[in-house]
Amino acid sequence: MTGFYNANLVALSLVVAIFASYTALELAGRVSHKQGRSSRIWLVCGAISMGTGVWSMHFVGMLAFHLPIALAYDVTLTALSMLIAIAASAAALYVVSRSVVTLRNLAGGATLMGIGIAAMHYLGMHAIRMSPPIEYKADLFIASIAIAIGASFAALWISFQLRDQSFGGAIFRKLGSAVLMGLAITGMHYTGMAAAEFAPGSICSVGPSSSMTSSALAMLIGITTIVILTITLGVSALDAHFAAKLTQALQTTNAQLSELALYDSLTGLPNRMLLDDRMGQAASSAERNGRSFALLFIDLDRFKPVNDSFGHAVGDALLKTVAQRLVSCVRAVDTVARIGGDEFVIVLSGIGEPKDAAMVSGKILDELSRPFFIESHEVDISGSIGISVYPQDAKDVKTLKAKADLAMYHAKQNGRNNYRFFAPGMSISNLA
Predict the structure, then answer these.
(1) How do 419-421 and 382-390 pair as beta strands?
(2) Using an 8 Å Cβ cutoff, are 60 and 12 in contact?
(3) Can you give the pLDDT at residue 34?
(4) Where are the domains of the chain?
């Protein structure tokens, strides 16, 4: 007995297959990005959506087939074939959602999924309940199963490759892959249909009380499935959008926390914590390259009277301007840090000899000696600078900073507005 196909329903089955494939690619990414209960929920929902799509394609394809006799489908077997499609989809999504996917995992998952799809197809064919039973050409039967496994392997591999790409970023690659997957799925189905042989005089033994018939039903199933898959894609896209927003918000928050932890809130300069890190880096670089670096410990002269006379707002504005002038005196590779109050520390990286630090210190004193105009007030201050040099004065950065601090006190004791290098005889006790 020879049958024929309704071309419109064949085309609809191909559209459904492509749509289901695209949805599968998108859901693979969503499942892999989730953890715990959320991942399990997406896996179940994804398996239902994907399995329903694949089953709908096969069912519409079978309804597209017409014999000279009336055909109907056993409800129980048809429903069971859908459950098999959902189970096969769940296995596929589970395989590609794992953090590490080996070739062996892909092959095992593809075999399981391919056999599941083939079982769905042939159980769906059995739901026609033909008498005598449908017989199958062995070569085409085997070929259909091989196509199912091969298509499943390609689908899993593509899903794994594209799963970490966003909904918008990989839309054309996913669409192209979905077309290939859809063609492979429909190829399996129609190869399996070609394998079927209906004996002359066969009849369909499904009674009307438990049957589903008509092309209108096929159209309804196809369109309903496309709507379900569209909704699923929409939810997936919204989930990806909100996940991206959340990631961006977390990155912004982390950047703000890092800013608060490592930078002075008033001047925007590195604080004590970041200064310690920069000193450690300078020491490591100097050790590797056989060079030196210098620490300049700066304390502003006559800063307290500014606060007392003009208020803290003017004092804060003055500190900001001082920070800008200090930064203008050094190179981009150097570090200017505020460690509290009116104290600043500068790391001069990779200096050739101590006189380089003296030259920068002289430039800084000139800058600090120029008048500051803050909120209509003319403010005059100066600075006292203590200098220590690595590794001559110390190889430990904590000790090096303490010695620069001590040299600064000696500079302040000796008339202010000058700089002093640390010398071995310096100590707190010999300050007048």
Answers:
(1) parallel
(2) yes
(3) 60
(4) 4-251, 272-430
